[in-house]
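Your task
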Amino acid sequence: MRSVILLVLKSLEVGGTERHIVEILRLLKRQGWQMRVYVLERVGSGVQEIEQLGIKVEGPHDKRTYRYVPHFLKSRLETLLSIAKLIRVLFSSDIKIVHFFLPKAYLIGGMMSLFAPIPLRVMSRRSLNYYQLKHPWLAAVERKLHGSMDAILSNSLSVKANLLQEGVDRKKIGLIYNGFDMGRLKNVSDRNTTRARLKVKSDSLILIIVATLFPYKGHMDLVRALAGISKQMPEGWKLLIVGRDEGELVKLRAAITRCNIFQNIMFLGERLDAFDLIAASDIGLICSHEEGFSNAVIEYMANGLPVIATDAGGNSEAVLNNKTGLVVPPKSPIDLGQAILNLACDKHARQKMGKAGKLRLKKQFALELCVEKYSNFYKNISKANGKSVQEIIDSQ
């Protein structure tokens, strides 16, 4: 029986990291790894999938616990009780590795773990460190915690560069790219069926962007780009905007109305059928100003879509410019618009790039390869014998 590994994260709501965790847990469980999961806040929709794998998920008390607590105290009390519960879990004698994902889980869980008899501590950074600019104190605490970690994992070379700038020992850093499960293609709805459901013609050009509506995801840049080229685009083109709103929707709707392209835009919100929508599209878009490594990019590639991506974070590590798609500068609607127009008017280029992207995904970003690296890491990190974390990850 292998040692228990505890994953600590903020929540299991729909998102790139959360989806990644569900996917790797499924295969790690199949390989015989003993896993547990702790979430600090809202459990989210991913919990059911993980529990169906036979993996225990722990987290905050039921909301009914706080029904008699004044509203202004609820969130504080919930946080304190969640931390107390996490401390109890960290003192479990069977946990040999604790693995923190994303800043909040790292900040809270990392500090709490220092008081627990945990043999090995690991952190995964999955985004660029721009968030530290708004919270200098957070940067200081994270730098202190880095020294207490036995390993720190990144998901792109750009994230790795951030960690080196923060003073992390190079030998402590490992790179594991996100992976995509090609088996998900088996359950994709027929392209024309999905288009009919959307009331979009079978021969219309469909662009898609799958990203939470945060300002840094660049949706406004995309609106401005499309406004500048709308008269040159093929008749009946559509843009599908998929992702939950985090305060941008009202501004985007107003901008689209001003630009007179409202009839071409479909706001679809957070969707469980996002993969069907990708499969029904012709061009995948990622317009972010900052990015660790986008799951949406490899989902586009898996479906044979050419990808237009901004040169932010790990985007250009996945998308090869002029081979599997087009890479443009971030925050540049003019360049983004020209790239969209180039592919919109060249079906042959779209098909060629899409095929190349799918082949690249199978060779470089398959889920099995990703999980193999996690498995190597978990298996050998306790017996490093002077090896770097990357050497451990790449070992056979």
